[in-house]
Specification:
about 400 residues; mainly alpha; 23 helices
Length: about 400
């Protein structure tokens, strides 16, 4: 009822919108109740009014964009009602004319309503302007839209266009981000979006069939190769042993936090691509990606989180045998062992439901499970004081004992 009052102050309107958004996020059925009481009309009217209020209404436009996204999340009814009231047109207007952070939130909301096509339409109109808030918001929106495209042929058909636009944008990233003054976060956003688009496309585009898909995978590998903390080990041989650990950090290179985060996302994307397509898994083996990942894992300078992502990506390509081999090579490193144990859990635990469950990765033969159990026990003996190693090793033991027992019955 309060949102019906046109005379309400900007602060009052913002408070109403933010309150509805918080309630919808907390309880989805309240979104349906809000829409039943004419909420779509009120939101669309507020968007149209806010679009003409200049910079004073930036926070209101941002709050409205968040509310649209919350209402549209998982609700085709909400999407239909909001689109029927003209919300998409208002969001597009704000995205094209706005200049603040509300534009990035608006692009995300636009993707929630109109999918990839609506986001690409605005991005194509803004591409010539370089790093605008609309382009940044579009990159963020494409990440989510790409995941939602799985199983939707119409949305999947738009992904090659999104991929081409992303690659072109990233090709000019250094120049553009220098102008924007925030290149590190933009790089992370681009890598996340690229990985999402590729993971959705690779099941439909085998290696050497679609030039931009091949090029996109190369960009992800280059992102890893040029990460400062990993570049010192880029020349390491694929057959390096634990002795190479001592030479990797001698360059004194310290990774920037944002660069390491971008590398994490690139490794995650490589792993998802390998899990999504057997043909791409084989191609990543053949092109040397697995050897490169092994070389980077050898580097002690890599932060633990990045090391875990590298292990996970390599396991997605080569399976459990790779993880066990690397653990043997680096048994003296608690960080490397911890990363390996986490990956073993991802591969073996059929009950894992999180986004990093390595469904599709190659397991060892049942006959290898006792040997793997012995390796885990060795890790526990080697690092008795490392709580994180002991915790993950116990989880591995539980899984392996169950598998070993089942194989003997």
């Amino acid at each position: 009822d309060a949102m019906e009052l046109e005379s309400m102050s900007l602060e009052g309107k913002w408070a109403c919108v933010a309150a509805v958004d918080a309630m919808v996020k907390g309880e989805a059925r309240l979104g349906s109740l809000f829409l039943e009481r004419g909420g779509a009309r009120l939101v669309a009217r507020a968007l149209r009014a806010a679009a003409t209020m200049g910079r004073d209404a930036e926070e209101l436009r941002r709050a409205l964009a968040y509310l649209v996204t919350s209402l549209a999340d998982g609700s085709t009814q909400a999407v239909s009602l909001l689109c029927a009231e003209g919300a998409m047109a208002s969001l597009a207007e704000v995205s094209l004319q706005g200049s603040g952070l509300e534009v990035e939130a608006t692009m995300w909301a636009l993707g929630s309503l109109g999918g990839i096509g609506a986001v690409l339409d605005v991005m194509s109109k803004q591409q010539a302007t370089g790093v605008s808030h609309a382009m940044r918001g579009g990159v963020l929106a494409l990440s989510q839209c790409a995941w939602n495209a799985v199983g939707d042929q119409e949305e999947l058909s738009r992904l090659p266009v999104a991929l081409a636009l992303l690659l072109d944008f990233m090709a000019h990233e250094e120049t553009l981000s220098a102008a924007s003054g925030d290149g590190s976060s933009l790089r992370v956003q681009c890598v996340v979006a690229l990985g999402s688009v590729l993971a959705s496309l690779v099941t439909h585009a085998p290696p050497n069939r679609h030039g931009n898909v091949d090029r996109g995978v190369e960009v992800l590998l280059t992102c890893l190769q040029t990460t400062p903390v990993l570049s010192a080990s880029s020349n390491a041989s694929a057959g390096a042993t634990a002795a190479s650990d001592t030479t990797c950090g001698s360059s004194g290179a310290v990774a920037d936090a944002a660069a390491s985060f971008a590398a994490e996302k690139a490794a995650e994307a490589i792993g998802r691509i390998a899990l999504a397509s057997v043909e791409w898994r084989q191609a990543l083996r053949q092109c040397g990606a697995l050897e490169a990942l092994a070389g980077w894992i050898h580097c002690r300078e890599a932060p633990l989180r990045l090391q875990q992502y590298l292990f996970w990506a390599a396991a997605a390509i080569a399976g459990l045998q790779f993880v066990s081999n690397e653990m043997r090579l680096h048994m003296a490193s608690a960080d490397a062992v911890h990363a390996g144990l986490c990956t073993i859990i991802d591969i073996l635990d059929d009950d894992v439901e999180d986004e990093y469950a390595s469904v599709g990765a190659e397991r060892s033969r049942d006959a290898d499970m006792p040997a793997l159990l012995g390796l885990v026990l060795e890790a526990m003996r080697t690092h008795p004081g490392a709580l994180e190693v002991q915790e993950k090793a116990c989880s591995c033991v539980g899984l392996l004992v169950r598998l070993v027992t089942a194989s003997r019955q």
